[in-house]
Amino acid sequence: MADLLVDAATRRSPLLSFWLSPRLTIERLVAERPRYLVLPLAMLGGAASAANMLTGYGAGSEIIGWRTLLVCVVGGVIFAVFNLYVLGVFTGWVGRKIGGVASNDAVRAVFAWGMLPNILGLAVVLSVAAGWRIFAAGAEPMSLSSLFGLVYGFSGLWALVVTLLMLSRVERFGFWRTMVAYAVGTLALAAGVALTVRTFLFQPFNLPAASMAPTLLPGDYIFAAKYPYGYTRFSLPFSPPLFSGRIFGSVPARGDVIVFRLPKDVSTDYVKRVVGLPGDRIQMKEGELFINGTAVRRKRVESFEESDVCGGGPSKVKRWRETLPEGASYETLDCVDRGFYDDTSVFTVPAGHLFVLGDNRDNSTDSRVLSAVGYIPLENVIGRVGMIFFSRDAGGGGTPTVIRYGRIGTLVQ
Fold it and tell me: Which of 66, 113, 298, 322 lies most in the core, judged by the most C-beta atoms within 10 Å?
């Protein structure tokens, strides 16, 4: 009788029978329609996973703004499609090497249908958030954070369990071979992809200080692109001294925001803006930047007062828009009049080096401080800052952490 009930359940739509018996559902799908809904489920599941992860950081009542939602959807979909096809081939190959029988299509179906709990988790989060706004608009939003974290954790664990159950079914594996196939197929591939991307394409960094405000704020998480300037030993994990100089190298342009290793401490990463190229003469006069004897054009704009960028608490800070001769335009801050480094001698940039400044001119240790930073060797440049992929204000004084949704996805100029 029980077998008849299960069989009847599995003859329903897979979207219904999955919740009752994922193993029998995937077996039927693989036998009859192995590609059924695979791509749509993977794309939707990738977007849902990314959105669920954001809610787990403590989004409060403002779950996902439109800009953040768009970033989640686009990034999640792209990663999910890549993951689906590459992971399906790699995990299928691993499975066959240890005696599995599943085709690549069958393995892809497993990973795609295993996304359903994540999709359900996002639906629960959005439903609760909508209800909260309607029925408890005046309540403390941060009380939702723990609930959303639990939903995200539970849906992720559920997705993992059903994926393993379905993989064991299509491969005809027991527990240990299923774990080996999954671990080698997913973790090893993920590590390899992450290492390749980090080494040759993009590396994440976070900003702990306000020296690049207002362009970058403390709590911003950024991607630095490595390919624009070529590669040095600092492009590699742990910076092994395998070679010197740059491979496929090019010189950064004035105005680029770069990540580099501090010349006097190559274990420390800094983020600053390039203002001087090899041979340039750089000087500060009464807070104005001069390049080769000519003042950089600047215009006063509305004061900055978003956060504490000068020390001593939030306050209105003078803000300027500078435009370099080549056209790069960006904003700088002036915390105090007649600051310590507002007037300097002339710096002549040596060959093979750069001169960098922080956009927060009175609160930045940069190339003006020869004893601490000085001129930056081209070999020490890691990459060009391209985008803010996450941002949160750590608060302080009892203020809770707040996600800055408006900064997520911002391109760095």
Answer: 113
